[in-house]
């Protein structure tokens, strides 16, 4: 049985790094979308409470 060395190790680390980057991007955009939605809802809530509307 051969151990992990050389290019095999580099390839495995590259695959893990790409997976981590993809998962991080998905989490980033999900949080960004949620925050944007919350800010818009808060703005509508504040505007609805202003007098004269």
Write up this protein:
The protein has 53 residues and is an all-alpha fold. The protein contains one helix and no strands. The chain has one helix spanning 7-48. The longest helix has 42 residues, at 7-48. The protein is rod-shaped.
How far apart the termini lie comes to 76 Å
Radius of gyration of CA atoms, rounded to a whole number: 23 Å
Overall 3D form: rod-shaped
Strand % is under 5%
Biggest sheet character: none
Mean of all residue-level pLDDT scores:
91
Percent of residues in helical segments?
A: over 70%
Order of helices and strands: H
Q: Structural class, from helix and strand content?
A: mainly alpha
Number of helices: 1
Question: Low-confidence segments, ≥5 residues, pLDDT <50?
Answer: none
- How many β-strand stretches? 0
How are the elements arranged and paired?
Elements (H helix, E strand, L loop, with lengths): L6 H42 L5
Keywords:
53 residues, mainly alpha, rod-shaped
Brief account:
This protein has 53 residues and is mostly helical. The chain is built from one helix and no strands. Helix content is 79%, strand content 0%.
